[in-house]
Amino acid sequence: MTRRGRIPMTYRGCIALALLMMAAPVQAAAPALESTHALLASLARSGRAEAMLSWSVPGPPGALSETMTGALALEPPDLARLDVRGTGERITLRGEGGEWSQPAMKQFIKLTPRHSVAAMRWWRLFVSGTGATERKLAARRYRLTIDGTPQAAADSADVWLDARGLPSRLELADGMGGKQVYRLAAWRFAKPKGAAAFKLSPPPGFEVVEMP
């Protein structure tokens, strides 16, 4: 599914999505964006957010794209986890890095903060509540653009909200002139499980790969 030393665009996007959705209640005094207000408030009350995530990945030449699904879990200030259905892949991310377990390849990849620089930029934006311009495009639809780069597609994201004001769809630039679409559903909020739930250990027989 991957070559050693490379993270496919789809999964970099999933990592970016997880970080983009993070928010820290301790920053409640900062001006909140309308597109993240409900998520921030719910996380501040509970401490943990969970949602079902779906996205498409290109198929072989001449074949249709495949829809992937997974369970996304988020806990402030910087904990994210994605458990992919079907493949058994698991991705965890924390401020100091994270892990990616790939059963099909029998690989266990250790991630460092350097591999999510762009995503961390979005996460810091959401934590501080500053550094971005929010434009309402339609009812429950917003475009967020990092300040100073209004024309850069890679620095913008379109967010759709559901009836509760929670993100239901997110479009991010894929770095190749197109956009990657993520859909979120079945949001629920619960007590936090803590950092231990966002750390993985290599299963027996897996090759451990440290990303350079």
Describe the structure.
The protein has a single domain, classed as Clam (outer membrane lipoprotein receptor (LolB), chain A). 16% of the residues lie in helices and 40% in strands. It is built from 3 helices and 12 strands; from the N terminus they run ααββββββαββββββ. A 12-stranded mixed sheet has the order 7-8-9-10-11-1-2-3-4-5-6-12. Residues 1-6 and 22-30 have low confidence and may be disordered. With 212 residues, it is an alpha+beta fold. It has helices at 9-20, 37-46, 117-128; strands at 48-57, 66-75, 79-84, 90-94, 97-102, 107-111, 132-138, 141-146, 156-161, 167-173, 179-190, 207-210. Helix 1 runs parallel beside helix 3.
The major pleated sheet works out as: 12 strands, mixed
Number of helices: 3
CATH class: Mainly Beta
How are the strands ordered across the major sheet? 7-8-9-10-11-1-2-3-4-5-6-12
The fraction of residues in strands falls at 35-45%
Kindly report the CATH topology.
outer membrane lipoprotein receptor (LolB), chain A
Radius of gyration equals: 17 Å
Let me know the CATH homologous superfamily.
Lipoprotein localisation LolA/LolB/LppX
* Percentage of residues assigned to helices: 10-25%
- The N- and C-terminal alpha carbons lie at a distance of 19 Å
